[in-house]
């Protein structure tokens, strides 16, 4: 009989260790350019070329990499336009400075001073510099990777993490959703729900600085996402010790990306350099069926960036990517009395509203009015 509930007593380090001892077969992931320490390494050009010929096959390979594969991959040159990275990095510095001056910007995960953190960097960037936002999120490769794990209609949130020289490593853990909960809460979720939850979020990191090993890029334990009982295991000293012996780290270059299944055991590393500040924009991509960790005010984001979108020449793929990062892409929850499913179709999403307005060259003021009306009729 399938066991639905379980507790820490059922954890098996042997089972965990044998899952983590799997060997990566490169031929299973033909689009990867390399594999190092059981981490697949993709290259921007290869993925974009492959997606042109067979988008679905490309999505499928990336999905497998995160589920039946090692659970993590790097993408070299996720951003080929490093000016877009630097422009956002400058904004991050300005936001960190202004939040520090206001006594905010705390990071609950690290000792004060060794770490900088910007919560909801997505909205903050949109409101400060719409052009920078559009440049950053009109990245079709990022959109492809998001869709590969969580399907269409996803929602992006972003948190900047800066680890300064001397910054200490994190304890290994799993991420949102259940990675944030106490063991007694986790134990109340039926095991199938625990497994399901990892399919609702994709964890990503965009390197905003080079990340040599000494600067402490994320420590990763390939295959550990496959241990079904893992949400109760990561605080167990035996599993922590195993992680510390077997975790791997890969250096990243500015503009590279790292993506992993949120159930993968991982931890930020030690920054043992004397002078290297490691900065990443941590992307958390939520399936339209999940709840995001952060609340983003998409109306404010769209009002901020719409004028920049109007004046910009973007390819269809770039436009799709930036709209996917800025507006809600899912019709529900809504008020079906006032926002009915006309003609049997799902009610219009914010993303459809923006795309339609852009196609009609609708002035910003008129767009804002439509957006407000759209919001109003969706309220209960
Ligand atoms: Fe994490």
UniProtKB/TrEMBL annotation:
GO terms for biological process: fatty acid alpha-oxidation. SUPFAM superfamilies: Clavaminate synthase-like. The keyword Oxidoreductase applies. GO terms for molecular function: phytanoyl-CoA dioxygenase activity. The keyword Oxidoreductase applies. It comes from the Bacteria. Keywords: Dioxygenase, Oxidoreductase. PANTHER family: PHYTANOYL-COA ALPHA-HYDROXYLASE, PHYTANOYL-COA DIOXYGENASE FAMILY PROTEIN (AFU_ORTHOLOGUE AFUA_2G09620). This is Phytanoyl-CoA dioxygenase. It comes from Erwinia typographi.
């Amino acid at each position: 009989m399938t066991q639905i509930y379980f507790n820490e007593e059922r954890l098996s380090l042997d089972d965990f260790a044998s899952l983590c001892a799997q060997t990566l077969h490169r031929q299973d992931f033909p689009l990867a350019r390399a594999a190092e320490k059981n981490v697949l390494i993709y290259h921007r050009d290869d993925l974009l070329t492959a997606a042109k010929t067979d988008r679905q096959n490309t999505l499928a390979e990336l999905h497998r990499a995160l589920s039946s594969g090692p659970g993590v991959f790097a993408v070299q040159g996720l951003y080929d336009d490093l000016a877009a990275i630097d422009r956002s990095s400058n904004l991050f510095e300005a936001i960190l400075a202004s939040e520090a001056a206001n006594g905010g910007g705390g990071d609950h995960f690290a000792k004060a001073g060794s770490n900088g953190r910007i919560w909801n960097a997505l909205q903050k960037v949109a409101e400060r510099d719409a052009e920078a936002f559009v440049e950053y999120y009109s990245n079709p490769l990022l959109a492809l990777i998001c869709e590969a794990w969580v399907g269409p209609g996803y929602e992006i949130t972003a948190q900047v993490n800066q680890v300064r020289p001397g910054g200490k490593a994190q304890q290994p853990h799993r991420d949102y959703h259940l990675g944030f909960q106490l063991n007694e809460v986790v134990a109340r979720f039926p095991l199938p729900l625990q497994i399901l939850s990892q399919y609702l979020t994709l964890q990503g990191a965009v390197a905003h600085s080079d990340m040599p090993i000494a600067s402490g890029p994320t420590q990763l334990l390939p295959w550990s996402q496959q241990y079904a009982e893992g949400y109760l295991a990561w605080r167990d000293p035996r599993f922590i010790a195993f992680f510390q012996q077997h975790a791997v780290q890969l250096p990243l270059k500015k503009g590279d990306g790292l993506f992993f299944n949120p159930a993968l055991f991982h931890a930020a590393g030690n920054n043992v350099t004397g002078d290297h500040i490691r900065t990443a924009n941590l992307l958390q991509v939520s399936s339209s069926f999940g709840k995001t960790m952060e609340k983003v005010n998409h109306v404010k984001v769209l009002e901020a960036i719409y004028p920049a979108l109007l004046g910009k020449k973007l390819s269809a793929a770039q436009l799709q990517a930036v709209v996917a990062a800025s507006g809600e892409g899912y019709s529900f929850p809504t008020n079906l009395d006032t926002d009915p499913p006309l003609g049997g179709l799902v009610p219009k999403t914010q993303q459809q509203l923006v795309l339609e307005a852009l196609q009609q060259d609708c002035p910003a003021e008129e767009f804002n009015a439509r957006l407000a009306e759209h919001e109003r009729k969706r309220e209960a």
